[in-house]
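Researcher: I'm preparing a figure for a lab meeting and need a structural model of a single chain. I don't have an experimental structure, so a prediction will have to do for now. The sequence is pasted below. Please return the structure as tokens so I can convert it later.
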Amino acid sequence: MDDGWRGSVALVLASSTGGIGQHVASLARGLRAAGCEVLVCGPAATDELFEFSAAGSAFLPVEIPASPGASDAGAIRQLRTALASRPIDVVHAHGLRAGFVAGLARPGVPLVVTWHNAVLAKGLRGQASALLERIVARSAALTLGASDDLVARALAVGARNARLGAVAAPTLAPAKRSRAAVRAEFRLKPGTPLILSVGRLHPQKRYDLLIEASARWRELDPAPVVVVAGSGPSYMALAQLASERHAPFSLLGRRSDVPDLLAGADLAVITSDWEARQLFAQEALTAGVPLVATAVGGIPGLVDDAAMLIPPGDVDAVDAAVRQLLADPGLRADYAVRGPERAATWPDEAATVADVRAAYAEVTALP
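Model: Understood. Here is the structure written out token by token.
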């Protein structure tokens, strides 16, 4: 019999269209299945996207924007009202923005904050973000980091207690379309390689490097086609750059059929300046798609030797790695085997839920 923690938790998130929202949805499902009472608080758009209430969790809208601003006071009031609507034993915020608002709004109960992203901003914005880090670190009874460097950063800015927190990727659904059907969508001729990346269109992802590299690959025969699934603020700038470089590169927008896209892909590529437990890296390795990824943040510890790692910010490295894999079917086959083997070692959703329940038991036992 499971004798783990079974209290009432409020999961708090700010605006999200990707990994954080999926992680919170996974936790909500698992915690409810374990007998916990779960309230999710976040922007109304996150409930539409991640279906918290449709899946059975209580949801109250709290409009926490992705960036600080005058609306923060309203978000704090909204969250304070939401948390007062029912008994809550623990507040668990995800990301610095949610952690900041939760730290000011929560009733007298412990606060757990999971750090999912590093601060990359410079100048005045970077200074403001560093202040936010210190406030959030010192307000939390426990800080969980999605990667070792986030744990180290939290401790450096004053966290009382910080450790690595398991963040499992949701189970990858089986593809609904065949490889041939996916390739037909992009009108690929036989033998044309399809290169896939999935993520938010944001400067941190450095899709500009992938565009520059794909323009070079026009000289290959056959020239690979590169597609990126995701939405975000960099869409127009990336579309313009791809047009200027005449790159065989397409922005697909947000897609709900990533398993299908992986079934049709020959390679997966991640060019980010920083990532923690990158969701698409987990999906690619699970699907057995050879992966090229930058050796940043938590990626090396996540993939180990199951992906080809390259330095960040280096278009020549992206170019060389992809050319090497395209030219060597044996190497691609080797990575296709290593990926699922590595994925089998990662914590699954059940282990992640058990980890946070242990965290809640820890903080609620504190005086």
